[in-house]
Amino acid sequence: MVEKVKHQRLRWLREWVVPIAVGLILAFSIKTWVVTTNVVPSSSMYPTIPATSTHHVYILVNKLATDFGLPIHRGEVVVFHFPDDPKELFVKRVIGLPGDTVKVTANAVYINGVKLNESNPNIAKSNLPKVGTYHVPSGHYFMMGDNRPISLDSRYWVHKYVARSAIVGEADFTIFPFNNFGPISQSLAAPTK
Questions:
Q1: Active-site choice (42, 43, 63, 92)
Q2: Domain extents in the chain
Q3: Where are the beta strands (DSSP E) in the chain?
C-alpha cells in the first residue's frame, strides 16, 4: 500500500508539478531575456504610440533587438531606464548616436550639421519650446519623443544622454488596447509606397 501511495505521488509530481515548473521557468526566461511588455502612460510619443495621460497603451519590447552588441540605429523607438531616475522606464526615439552633435531648432533637427530627414508624418514638425545644441558622449544616445512640443526628453533631463547599458529593448508593437494593435515605426522617414 505504501509503495502505491509513493508511486501516485511521483506520478502527480511528474504529470503536474514538473510541467508547471518548466513552464514558469520558460516564461520567466522569455520575459527576462527575449521579450517583455511595458505601459506607456503619456502622449510624448503620440501618435506613433497612441497613449495619453488617461488612455495608457501597452507595448511589446523586443530585448533581442538591442542585445548581443547589436547596433542601435537612429530612428529606433527604444525602452530605457530614465537617466535621472533609473527605476523608471521611458520610451523615446533615438535621434543622436555616440559622438554626434545634435542641433535642435524650432522646426528641424541637424546631426553633425546635416538636416535630419524626419518626413515620418507621426513626428511633430515643431520642436518648440526647447531648442539647443547637444554633444552626445561616447557610449550614449540622445532621445526625443515624437510629440515634441510636450515630450520631456533628452532636451530637458539633468542627465541628457542614455547609456547603451540602460537600453532595455526596441518597442516593436502596441498590443493593448486591441484597437491600437500594430507595429511601431522604427524610421524617421515617411514609409515608401
A1: 92
A2: 1-33, 36-183
A3: 35-40, 57-62, 77-81, 89-96, 101-104, 109-111, 114-115, 132-135, 140-144, 162-163, 167-176, 182-183
Could you please state the CATH topology (level 3) that the domain comprising 36-183 is classified under: Umud Fragment, subunit A (2.10.109)
Span 121-146, average pLDDT: 94
**43, 44, 185, 187: the active-site residue:** 44
Per-residue pLDDT tens digits for 60-84? 998 887 777 788 999 999 999 999 9
| Chain segment 162-180, per-residue pLDDT in tens | 999 999 999 999 998 888 8
Active site residue 92: yes
Q: Longest C-alpha distance within the chain, in Å?
A: 84
| Rg of the chain on CA atoms, in Å | 22
Would you say how long the chain is, in residues? 193
